């Protein structure tokens, strides 16, 4: 696990660099897209490179991490719509190139299975962007999630619904109670995981993710078992890391050719 501690704009650039390198080497790259505020600066940077440097997504595919259950199709906070407005519609991703679990399907169990199959049929995800919840969730794998889980229905914790109420007029009662989410094992199948976290509110979750014991109580800790994880954090999110100085020294001494 590589930990990079840097200011927010640098983190967004690093994540965009990794995605750009993949797309330039293999235009049919399969990306894993995350919602939440953490990846937004990465999307802005990718859009800039698309507009100014000819970075093309035309042959790429993308899979979403999760989706709320039961939000109306045109609801702005439906994750499919969020991904559409934050990235897909701003670059040249082909129509239908982004797939997510269908939170409005009549048969939600079948929708989860179909989504897993679509990822497998695409050959798996090359690079998965991730955020982290204050309770250590990734995608919507809340504490207690099986470390071997695949895409399924989950109940959101009160904490997550309160955290996400800011997107629903600060009214927690408007935040759906259920979601479909890639499981932890689904996420672990991606070839490179890039997790972004900023702000003091994420410091404990980041400490647990990087330095805590692997436990379903802090679902993100399962990432310690992945061979290629990059954790991109600002000073505030890194403020509880015991080995922060070591991570800083390691990154400062890293050869420029190595990439993430
Ligand atoms: C939501 C999403 C997660 C995201 C988390 C953190 O719960 N399902 O994928 O990582 O929020 O969001 P933010 O980046 O806004 O802090």
UniProtKB/TrEMBL annotation:
Keywords: Allosteric enzyme, Carbohydrate metabolism, Hydrolase. Belongs to the glucosamine/galactosamine-6-phosphate isomerase family. NagB subfamily. CDD domains: GlcN6P_deaminase. GO terms for molecular function: glucosamine-6-phosphate deaminase activity; identical protein binding. Catalyzes the reversible isomerization-deamination of glucosamine 6-phosphate (GlcN6P) to form fructose 6-phosphate (Fru6P) and ammonium ion. Allosterically activated by N-acetylglucosamine 6-phosphate (GlcNAc6P). The active site is at residues 66, 135, 137, 142. GO terms for cellular component: cytoplasm. One of its GO terms (biological process) is N-acetylglucosamine catabolic process. Residues 11-226 form the Glucosamine/galactosamine-6-phosphate isomerase domain. Pathway: Amino-sugar metabolism; N-acetylneuraminate degradation; D-fructose 6-phosphate from N-acetylneuraminate: step 5/5. Gene3D superfamilies: 3.40.50.1360. It is an enzyme of class 3 (hydrolase). It catalyses: alpha-D-glucosamine 6-phosphate + H2O = beta-D-fructose 6-phosphate + NH4(+). Its EC number is 3.5.99.6. It holds the Pfam family Glucosamine_iso. This is Glucosamine-6-phosphate deaminase. InterPro entries: Glc/Gal-6P_isomerase, Glucosamine6P_isomerase, Glucosamine6P_isomerase_CS, NagB/RpiA_transferase-like. The record marks 145, 152, 154-155 as: Part of the allosteric site.
